[in-house]
Amino acid sequence: MEKEKIEFKSGFVTLIGRTNVGKSTLLNLLVGEKVAAIANKVQTTRTAIKGIVNRKNSQIIFTDTPGIHKPKTKLNETMVETSFSSLPDSDVILFLIEATSTDIGRGDSIILEKIKEAKRKTILIINKIDLVKRETLLNLIDTYSKEYNFEAVIPISATNTKYKEIILDEIEKNLKPGPAYYDIEEYTDQTLRQLAEETIREKALKLLQDEVPHGIYIEVEKMKERKNKQKEEIYDIEATIYCLRESHKGIIIRKKWRNVKKNWKSS
User: Fold this and answer.
1) pTM of the model
2) By the 8 A CB rule, do 153 and 167 touch?
């Protein structure tokens, strides 16, 4: 008897949630590579970033969107619009919330309304479950389940690799048959230059802490490949850091840039 042929599946998955909920951490976990900057600051993700997961029977293309927040500037308003604009084109939505939430807050309510409008399959991911008791988690699941018919509700800790296959299996289950849109060797649509910019920005945000807010932009000017003494391939990179305010320039140069260079290899 012939084995039933398994159809190859593919699709686009949008990660959406409030700021600092752990979307970029989850994206990096699922992709298995560093594709998005992670820092303990709001609005670390500035644009929609794609990560690609190639499995035996599927290709999943993830989009990590800027965190949903109350916009106070035109830039912030554009970032929020970027997040919501990707929902109607998604095959599956991953809606991230924090386990520490006791109710559906204003930000999550707005996201829920946008998900209802998009009418797309949605998986609710409850992150940071290590911070709450079981009873609190169950109450939160019940609250959200009454608001929307989620395909699945998955409680996780985005830093724990054991949840990776659970989430990917659930996503694959909800995809339709389709082709591979990207080469199976690719894990992001970002160029090497863009990945370098993301890494520098992440390091700067972490090291500058509260002294400089999220409003910095990195532009790589030059990248030159060479081999070091151990014959390893490395890159010499020249980059420019743009600040929102003149006062931030002095802080970066005088107080922190040595640390940025010193910690570069830890990425």
Assistant:
1) 0.70
2) no
